[in-house]
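Collaborator request log, item 7. Partner lab (contact: R.S.) asked for a structural prediction of Subtilisin-like protease SBT2.5 to inform their binding assays.
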Amino acid sequence: MGSSRRGEEKGLPIPPPPPPNPGGVTSRRQKEAAMEIEAVGADGNPMLALINAYLQAYKFQTSYDCSSDTIVMAFCKPCLVFYSVLTFLILNGGPSHVLAKVFMVVMEDDPIISPKSSQKKVMRGEEAQKYKAMTTTKHDIFLDSFLPAGSYKKLYSYTHLLNGFAIYAKSEKAIKTLSGAKGVRLIQEDIKMAKMTTYTPRYIGANVVWPLLGGAEKAGDGVVIGMVDTGIDPSNPSFLSTSDQAKPPPASFKGTCQTGERFPPDSCNGKIVGARWFARAGQATGEFNATMHYASPYDPDGHGSHTASTAAGNFHTPAISKGYNFGHASGVAPGAHLAIYKAAYSFGGYMSDVIAAVDKAVEDGVDIISLSLGPTTITSGPASFLNLLETQLLLATKAGISVVQAVGNGGPDANSVVSFSPWITSVGASTTDRKYNKSIIIGNGKVFSCGGLSPSTPGETMYPLALADDVCNTNSTGGSSNCQDPDVFIRSLVQGKVIICMFVSSNYYEGDFLAGIVDTIQKIGAAGVIITDRSSSDSDIEYHPTFPTSIPSAIVVNSADAQALLEYYDDNLVRDKEGSVTKFGATIRILDGRRAIYTREAPVVAEYSSRGPDVDDMQMQAADVLKPNVMAPGHHIWGAWSPTSDAMVEFQGEIYAMLSGTSMATPHVAGVVALIRQRHPKWSPAMVMSAIMTTADVTDRSGRPLMARRDGGVLERATPFDMGAGAINAARAVDPGLVFDAGYRDYLQFLCAVPGVDDAAVLRAVGVPCPPSRARWCSDLNAPSVTVASLVGSRRVDRRVTSVGAENETYMAHVQAPDGVAVRVSPDTFAVAPGATATLRIVLNTTAPGNTFSFGEVVLRGDKKHTVRIPLAVFPAAALSP
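Returned to partner:
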């Protein structure tokens, strides 16, 4: 129902056209406003139009006094009262719909880093701060003009990469009102975000780069990595100042250090150069609890400390857990600085908080953003690339910042990536060659391989073995065999024995459950514990929860070994007529399992690592984008931890922990980016990404292809949708020979070529229209890979390469064509001088249409030993029938 009709029914008069504005609004503007009212049809909303008309007629005039750093506004105050009255009627003239959600609103006005401006024209320093203050004030006045007090709460003003704000709206009508307001470009409901390391620098070749940068302690010096995560524990040894005099941050970094609980003023010590926290969306929804989550940059969860230490933790720091030194931890770039932006918590996080964190990180002047977070749902449309976070990260890239993001833990399912866009380096997770061998020996001499990081039973003595059920009270009901309740055990029977604890389903292979068993065994004073499964199926030890224990323990996951162990136990057991045990004849010895061995095995794509192909809309349409871009170690990674964290019971109270996930892989790549940027400070984010991708490993030391773990632990040859361009190789990434460069305009042309995306959608998302010269295909983007989601007939793909080598080099192209596709590269041989560019034409032709993607590569081999690898992912499709 139209608001004017509602007003007339209540007898409210329609006021006459307003008098001239003291701020200088002309009579022409008044006439235009009156025309707007008359233009509203019978099905329109005249009252909302009236408000808009009065806003136009009495629009406050804002002038910017740079000399006095003040904002001067002239407006008719009585008119603002009138706006508020009419707006109140709109919001309250009908049934109230409770919404209580967070929304992000983007305005049409430019942010500080405008998508329309060149890098040279970006506002900086005092000018940027004045514009920020003016923009924030305009947001407040805009909201006060349209929404009644109490109907909303502004959480953030976004000013640097986006011009907009986040609000907590208490009614659906409030959002409808804003959606119809002039000056609003885009509104998006907030999205929940989810959280997605000691020897690994050597495993990926970072230690080879360190000497080129002045040694390990200086590797990454002058580079600031912005960690958008759960915060940091500044007292952890990985983040303590490495010298008596704290190292100052780079002059280009303008961040500050917010203090608070467990985050004193000296927390920013040279290693940590800035720290902030963002939780207004979490506070608005009631999920943030200051007692649990800390109103400071302190990390109560552990996730942020872990990722930060992986990227840039101090060199050669003892990783001690449960009183045992598991090695010396080092970040990939130990000399880099850390800027902390806490925007995630044990409950996850919200996109509006993350966007505020990214906005501030760019304003502060970070060089890299490491984001081990991703959306829990894909709600944007019509294209995933137009998600508000994705477009904000595009503008961060425009500002010269490299963005590295976890690809997600939804594998091995296809189409499970949560990091979509070609301007983001999306990271998958792999295993490493570090293994912990654990064994048990039973009385008949048999030896079983097990899991578990624990000490051995003391000495070389064999210890009596007892099933938990046989040393518990006979009247106990449940909870005995799975060892979760210490009160059911008979203490005199468990002394000096190793106890077998069991469970029925492999679903119980969870850290909390296993930690509960260990806690029970400690409390009852047994000599050790063997944990095994009653089921007949095997469990994959590679993906079994692994954590250190201070008591001897072992996990038997092979079903044949478990059966043999139980048969041995039964064969050496004597029971009386009532079934009670009169003699425990079986014996066992648990060997130490805390010493790592290094097998020199190639990395394997972790089963949980999310897979491509990338998608360009909610209907899961495959996109012409390779995701993930690269993979890095993410499985069983040691890193810093927070002793206050209860996220993992098995590491409670510890300062180092072993975690797995693409969250752990991401900071490895962020650290390598820091090494590259220190070595090549003028490279663009696209050049850095290219260097990482084209030098990645796709084979092991023997030349055999890398593998990926599928459902059920099956190993198959890895494809680019599993591992991206391959396993990161830091040693080669700093000297790639050739790079593929792309800038903001290239990415804009990419967006305008996405199927189903019109010019209006692009304008709403990024604030600028599609350029006059448009790309025909998304695959035209000058990326270090070629992906064609539907090759019908033939397609030409051009690529520009730039030489970053030190001398002239001649390259020869070698092609491994995907199945069903013919590939021709011209020129197949070319010479390029340092700093010069060359254009390659890659022509793809369908030779045998199929029903899936096939994979290949173009390899450019230079006569100065550079090798540039370009992955090909092509779906050869049949032509549609006329």
